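Structure ticket #2291
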Amino acid sequence: MSLSGQPPAGATYSTILLPMDLDPETEGRARLATDLADRFAARMIGTAAEEIVAPLYFEGADAGIASIMDIQAEQAQKALAEAETRFRRIAGARNRIVWRHALTAPTAYALEQARSADLIVAARPRADGTFDPMAADGGDLVMDAGRPVLFVPPQIDHLAAKRIVIGWKDSREARRAVWDSLPFLKAAEDVFVVSTESPADSVEDVEAYLTSHGVRAHVMLRPGVDAIGDELIAVARLKGADLIVSGAYGHSRMREWAFGGATRELLHHSPLCLLMAH
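Resolution: structure written out below.
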């Protein structure tokens, strides 16, 4: 970390994307994203979307369907306006903020807007299966956006990232996650590279790679561990870390993502912030 406590030049997120909805937890996530924007001197883009869906069945004339959709559109516009109000209230008088919204599917809209960002700050995927018409699906974001996603658990509104745990597996996804998290890693005081299955030389190469970037890295081998997600969380708690970095592993099945065990466990149950890349 530099003497000023700021990320070194060239190691930063220039633009942060924050998909908004009206869940009570969203404001905490917005405060965290705003703090990160200040930390990295980044532009912040807030987005919201809600899709208007025609009724599948309707007994009556086409004019009745149009009326129902008009009512839906009016309600959605009010919800989008409320999301913008909350976003601007938290962002305050900062100059480098942008608001975008649309009457369309929220996940598709967030994926589209990801083209403008270096980092997406999002809610964890909903483990209980509940539906929010404005919520972007976190699983789709991390697998399809082509950008790292910082998942923020409920009741968290600040990320120090002074100590960070990396879940290392010698794979494309893990390499991508390490690269995408370098702005955090370079500003951290200690980074712990944890591996349950990679050989020692693989983990030592990651340590050397991070050291070459000025990161204070430590190797922790945990062979024979089955519950990898639980182990990463346990190590993070032991070391006082509040951020876990990991690749996102999964495959597409029937237009939905089926995640690997460790990825699923972290996405749904990590009490700490989680930066993932695919």
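Closing remark: Residues 163-277 form a domain with the Rossmann fold fold (CATH 3.40.50.620).
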